[in-house]
Structures are given as structure tokens and as C-alpha cells.
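Notes from hallway chat w/ T.B., transcribed later so I don't forget. T.B. wanted the structure written out for a chain they're using in a teaching module, and asked if we could keep both sequence and C-alpha cells in one place. Agreed to drop them here.
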Amino acid sequence: MTFAGTFEGGYPAKVWETYLWVALGSGLGGAARLLCSDIAARLVGLEFPWGTLTVNVVGSLLIGLIAALVQPSGKFEFGPNVQQFLMVGVLGGYTTFSAFSLQTLALVRDGHLGKAGAYVVSSVLLCLIAVAIGYAIGSAFAQPQRS
């Protein structure tokens, strides 16, 4: 620490505190995602990705609920660390689809239907392309080396 309230590198102590809360929430959210996916797989099988679908729908429901409750006209006034812990940490660790859904809703609510549609289509297509490319690269590296 260089001087009171600031860590080396110039980041205020409050910023690091937020990062720590988000990291803790991410761990909890990731563990909850695994638990939920495991329960769904045990209950309905693996023929369809019910666990992932359930996680994405529940995460989207929860981030919408929390966003509405903590907005300026909302019922609760959580501090920024609690909001970051819940929305970025827990729900971000649980599913990033929830953040995607909230951002899409914001575009729709603000009347940017074209942007919302472009965001949805480009996110799905680009992510499918990216996962295919990543899988291909990983598969190439995973092949045994011929001597």
C-alpha cells in the first residue's frame, strides 16, 4: 500500500474490495451452476441440455428481479458492492446469459429494437463460430504428435 486508501498501481482500495466481492460471488455462482446442472441431469437425463437451459432461465429471471429491485425507483437500495456481488459475481458465475439477457432487455426498453435484434443474432452466431474455432484449435493441439 502506497498511502491510505490506495494500493500500488493506483487503484483505490474500494475498487479492490469490489473485485474481491465479485470473485467471491463468482465462486458461489459457479458452484450453484454445477449443482443445478447436476440435479437436472439426474432428474431428466442428458439427451437435452436441460441443466444449462435451466441455469440460463433462472439466472435471467434472477438478474431481472434484482435489477428491478435495486434501480433508483426500486424497493431496495443495495450498495454498489452488494449489487456487484449479486449481479456480476453470483449471477455472472452462475450464467453469463443473464447479463446478455438484461442488456438485450435494456436495448428493447430504450426503443432500440434493431440494436437488440442485432445483438441477439450477432451474439449467438459469433459465439457459435468462436466455440467452433476454439474447439478446432483445441482438437488440433490435442492430437498426438507423430514421430
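Follow-up for T.B.: The radius of gyration is 19 Å. Might be a good example for the class.
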